[in-house]
Amino acid sequence: KATWNELTTTLQSDIAADVTKNVFYWSRVAVIVAQGSGMHRSVEGSQLSQADKRLWKRIWWTLFTRDRSVAVALGRPVTINIEDSDVEMVSEDDFYDDEPDRPAEYAPNPIHVQFFINYVKLCEIMGLVLSQQYSVASKMRRNNALDLTHSDMALADWLQNCPPEVRWEPQRHHFWSALLHSNY
Predict the structure, then answer these.
(1) String of DSSP letters for 87-154
(2) Per-residue pLDDT tens digits for 33-64
(3) How many other CB atoms are there within 10 angstroms of residue 27's CB atom?
(4) Residue 172 DSSP code
(5) Which of 32, 64, 109, 127 is the 20 to 30 A CA-CA neighbour of 180?
(6) Greatest CA span in the chain, whole angstroms?
(7) Chain segment 70-104, per-residue pLDDT in tens
(8) What pTM, to 2 d.p., does this model score?
């Protein structure tokens, strides 16, 4: 006959094993730590070096994309409310780690840069779709057809403006364009 301590210890170890495998949990932890460090706020006027400002921005937008992709994949709510952030949209310049007195050791790969920038834009639309179509609040609104049209237009605009370097074309098989468009 199992004692109460044995049962709770077994249950706690099972829960701990699940937590370590749970991408939703760890993504939330990363966002909470980043927000606690102020990464959700613009650092343009800060004393950070230009390289650190760019790095913070890339980290923030990486967490943003992870938050959206995990929410879509697992059917969970997003952690990041974009209205609580004033970090500027990531740009090509944010991938250069050079300083005036120290040039970058490696130049960024332009395809990787375009992939990430366009993935961030796509994740913004994912958040829009999640809030307009799948949130609890969306069930109470009456304008679902209008919201759906807006989401559809945002996706069409994204596809139309996707740069050729990362645009999927069936006759040209390219890993990064395939990965980007598999999320589309």
Answers:
(1) PPPP-GGGG---BTTB--SSPPPHHHHHHHHHHHHHHHHHHHHIIIIISTGGGT-S-HHHHHHHHHHH
(2) 999 999 999 999 999 989 899 999 999 999 99
(3) 21
(4) B
(5) 32
(6) 71
(7) 998 888 889 999 999 999 999 999 998 877 777 77
(8) 0.82
